[in-house]
Amino acid sequence: MRALLIVDLQNDFCPGGALAVPEGDAIVPTVNELAEGFEHVLQTQDWHPAGHQSFASSH
User: Fold this and answer.
1) What is the distance between the alpha carbons of residues 7 and 5, in angstroms, rounded to a whole number?
2) Cβ atoms of 40 and 5 closer than 8 Å
3) How many Cα atoms are found within 13 Å in the side-chain-facing hemisphere of 24?
4) Residues 4-49: pLDDT tens digits?
5) What's the structural domain count of the chain?
6) What is the residue range of 31's domain?
7) What does residue 5 show for φ and ψ, rounded to 5 degrees?
8) pLDDT value, residue 11
């Protein structure tokens, strides 16, 4: 079995997102191409409730 694990590839880190990274969406075509070669593709998503201690505004 072959699996691809994609970590935190989500809209929040793309241009226009809440935590945008410059050109964060540039990797999407490459990831999509890689995913075609795997039997299983798993994705993780980072999420925190409002006011979570990981936000700078909470300190």
Assistant:
1) 6
2) no
3) 15
4) 999 999 998 999 998 899 999 999 999 999 999 999 999 998 888 8
5) 1
6) 3-58
7) -105, 120
8) 92
